[in-house]
Write a structure and sequence with these properties.
By secondary structure, this protein is an alpha+beta fold. The chain has three helices and four strands, in the order βαββαβα. The two termini are about 25 Å apart. Residues about 100-110 have low confidence and may be disordered.
């Protein structure tokens, strides 16, 4: 299962190290990590994880919180129906002041 996680950490350096260690300890593959600037200048880490079956968004969120995340948003990415995730992401982009010109995991949204 693929997961898209957005997290803001109390201590970013320790948080990223904690995520990497937690992924290693739980046999979760850290696929992508990218940082963007969020509201009020906070650094938002966008993380893509690949886990085995049995993981839930709540469990992934708990893993991030244990690694030191202050806030977490977890979205399951359906590999069989990626358009469902992209449509939700596109709606969120249209509502965002930055619009649709922002890259998301290396892909550009259809505008």
């Amino acid at each position: 299962m693929l997961w898209s996680v957005k997290a803001v950490f109390f201590n970013r350096e320790a948080g990223i190290q904690g995520v990497a260690q937690a992924c290693h300890d739980n046999a979760i593959a850290l696929q992508d990590l990218r940082s963007t600037t969020g509201r009020r200048g906070q650094v938002v880490d966008e993380i893509v994880l690949a886990s085995s079956d049995g993981w839930t968004s709540r469990r992934i969120g708990d893993l991030m919180a244990a690694a030191g995340a202050a806030t977490v948003q977890v979205i399951a990415v359906d590999a069989d129906h990626p358009e469902a995730h992209l449509n939700a992401e596109r709606k969120a982009r249209l509502a965002h002041p930055g619009g649709t010109r922002r890259n998301w995991h290396g892909m550009r949204a259809a505008g």
